[in-house]
Amino acid sequence: MLPLLNRLKSDESLMLAYQNGDTGAFELLYRRHKDGLYAFLYRSCARAAVVEELAQDSWVGVVKAAGRYRPEARFKTWLYQIAHNRLVDHWRRPDSFHSSLETTLEPVATPAAYEFGELEQRLLAAVGQLPPEQQDALLLQGQGFSVSEVAEITGSGEETTKSRLRYARMQLRELMGGEQ
Amino acid sequence: MNDYDELLDKAKLPLPSPVSPPQLDETILAYARDNAPARRPSIPPWWFTGVATASVVTVALFITLPQQTSVPTLEDRFIELPRHASKETETTTVDRTTSTTNSVALEKAQMTVQRRGKNLTHAKAKPKSAPAQASTSTKHKVEKRAINDAQMSAIATEIAPAASFAGAVPAIDINASEEMSADMQLGYVSVELSEEKLVERIEELAEALVHGDEKLALKTYKSLRQQCPSCDLPKTLAEAINRYLQPDSVK
To answer: Is the ipTM of this complex over 0.90?
Structure first.
């Protein structure tokens, strides 16, 4: 009965339930967002080992900050904000790399390995060539966030975000158009 | 604009969408279970603490308050006096006043007799002009009186509220001051001194003055004035001597 009720609950309600010690609520919340977050991280750095580390760090961050969570913003925005910060930290590391520098993409090393189509591979490579800020804005919008939410996650102004999105599309068109 | 441009505008890029690996899911969920915030009780713990503390304090008060009243105090001893004591002392005979067991009752009897206009037949009564021929010198007598004054002052302050509360004659059991004369007690328990006692006192002080104990005499006289404001004593001891004593009374 309780799991069924939990399924009808919003992300914010589930997070508050977890705040009160309901681990089942967190499990449901995790299952709602785990694949989306994983895909976002994979598109940002395209290395399975790094993506797993970043995903784990992000969720651990959620668990650690659960006590302080206030449902003032959407849970999903908060989750991606944590993930974005982890991603930025990763890029700032001296030993890190940006996917735009990689020549080949590493496939996801799981039993249910994702079968990449040709278009997907080309597009991912093109996205990887974008500057990190433009790439972030484009990928976050691809996750269903509005411009204002993207601005909130990346910690920038709305106009800046719009500008980044415009340049990202233009550049991507050029990159993909040149190959076509 | 081709299909690709359309997808770009809608931000629905055909990018790879890998799923989270199961072992990662297990790791994260296990961590979340282990580090879940503590389940909050429906009633905050401080509420229980507050109620428990208040209950303990209330019970403690109920227990301690009756015990405090049952502890025998000096005041209780006055309250425990039989109610008929005051009547008894008022109607007692002179013989009864000679009893030394209850010095206060003795004094009360003396007062009663005085009020009736009878002569006080006191065991310690002595001639007005009698010299200090007992065993002690005049100096010793005055000193003793001064010490008794101090002791009685403290006791009178302590018993005053209890005495008025009990409505009974305070029965002072002062073992420490056995030598205290009855008239001295009267000077403290009562605020009034008879003329006779007053003269007696002044005589003693005059004798002390004559024997060179001026400081002690003046000090004792000062305290005597304070104890008996209704006696209307003069400001100085010299004036008192002039007023109350005959020229030949001091020896």
So the answer is: no
